[in-house]
Amino acid sequence: MTEATAQATPSQVAAVFDLVAPGYDQEALRFFPFIADRLIAQLRPAAGDKLLDVACGTGAVAIAAAQAVGPGGRVTAIDLSEGMLARLQAKLTKFGVANVDLHVMDGGALEFRRDYFNHVVSSFGLFFLSDMSSALAQWRRVTRPGGTVMFTSFAPLAFTPMIDLLRARLVDAGVDMPPQELADSNECQALMTAAGLMDVNVKTEQMGYHLRNELEWWEIVWHSALRGPCERLAPAQLEEVRVAHLEEVACLRTDKGLWLNVETHFVRGRKPA
Q1: Is residue 38 assigned to a domain?
Q2: Which of 3, 53, 105, 167 has the highest count of CB atoms within 10 angstroms of its CB?
């Protein structure tokens, strides 16, 4: 799911997510809130904690974290996409969530003071940053001694075989598709250790479910970062790719529906006390 913006500039990343923001909370993409809830359950922030959510999107982690830290705690949510933040602000207003602050900010260039947050987390945000090592060093800098840095990334089998079929169609159509980032759990662990974090742990869990059909799979493509490479095609060419791709994906459907593999790494480390 990282192909759309790998090696892209911050403005290009923001443009893709501004584009998909209106559909980012579609039911087909419910793995985002599922994984956000699991992340916070593993993190177990205390009431009153301060937490930074990097690349917050439409707020799945931020809202779960706000509930966990309670009215005496504070969540700061940052993203490059103003469209994503607007969606999150609408949710905060609708549900009366008062302990979340929003900022347009690059997750690799944090504007916060050292040792401020109890926890810094990012759900599927790190691999969009051009220098992941530098970003993790930034996250460690703003974390209090003894505090937690945690991120999620997709494991190698996530979204297979559909994503492999889509990748092949797009490559045949002339779209460059860089490799998936942070699929290797050893790479995740090494990055955290190199950033000076201790007790680094990677848990890999299956967060998947059945989609009703191939059209729900296309909802995921169209309302996620995968939209980016699709948009590089002319409309007529994109429609040809879409129709051919969905025909082959339809063959994968069983009486239970279409299995969506969402194998996910939960990567956690602690800043030395």
Answers
A1: yes
A2: 53
pLDDT greater at residue 25 or residue 7: 25
Looking up residue 77, the CATH number of its domain turns out to be 3.40.50.150
Judge whether 168 lies within some domain.
no
Give the list of residues 6+ apart from residue 24 with CB closer than 8 angstroms, or none. 17, 32, 57, 58, 84, 87, 223, 224
In a domain, 224, yes or no: no
pTM greater than 0.90 (yes/no): yes
Measured CA distances, 42 to 29, 36, 92, 216 (Å): 21, 10, 23, 29
What do you get for the CA distance between the two ends of the chain, in Å? Answer: 35
pLDDT in tens, 78-98: 999 999 999 999 999 999 999
In a domain, 162, yes or no: no
Count Cβ atoms below 10 Å from residue 150 Cβ, excluding itself.
24
Q: Is the pLDDT of residue 5 over 60?
A: no
